[in-house]
Amino acid sequence: MKNSVAYPHLMDSGLLSGLPESDKAAFLDSCTRRFCGERTTLLTQSEPTQGCYLIARGRIEVSYIDDSGNLSIVHIAGPGEVLGEVEVLSETSCAASCISMPDTTVLYCPAALLFEYATKPELIRNIAAILHARLLRDNHQRSIEQFYTVDERLFQYLRQFSTPDDPEIQISQAHLAALMGCSRQKVNRMLKALRDEGTINLSRGKIIICDRGRIDAGADQQCS
Description:
Elements: H1 3-6, H2 21-30, E1 32-36, E2 40-43, E3 51-57, E4 60-65, E5 71-77, E6 82-83, H3 85-90, E7 97-100, E8 104-110, H4 111-117, H5 121-147, H6 150-160, E9 168-170, H7 173-180, H8 184-196, E10 200-203, E11 206-209, H9 212-220
Antiparallel strand pairs: 1-8, 2-7, 3-6, 3-8, 4-5, 4-7, 9-11, 10-11
Keywords: DNA-binding, Transcription, Transcription regulation
GO molecular function, one term: DNA-binding transcription factor activity
Organism: Salipiger abyssi
């Protein structure tokens, strides 16, 4: 089955916005489908890449390691998002590592295909819009780190790393604590409190959102 038929939602991907339907389908069908049953490294920080990835289903963890070896999870990308396109077009090494969550399907777009479509003004505009969205996300992230309480940060990350259609977050409490800037013990107590009130469920390395409304209300509390 062609990619454009198997994953019709990708026809609305931001990368392809404004292109004729025939061009969208041709682009998707020229990509190579790849299923990642387990956590799989797709892009590695500081290494070159020969193509980019469009997420068809599942999620991808974007992480960065600083000069001291500290690991930060900077984003959890979901369906419709593209990763690695800037490195392909600029012919630079990867700014971060991208590791798929289990049961993730991606479409691999080789550099030659991306350069072919990069001649279209719509694609240049779309990539600029994607970069703008990333800047806004990074600005929001800095705001969370500086002005939100630990409780508010937890709700923000639980909302950011999940969706209503995919409520399962695969992240360790140690990683979550590092993101929030507090101890693992503090995160453990907060998560258990949310579990006891029925907002989440916990299993090894996973957090499952049960009450999305409660998470949204907690995340929006700082803004009210």
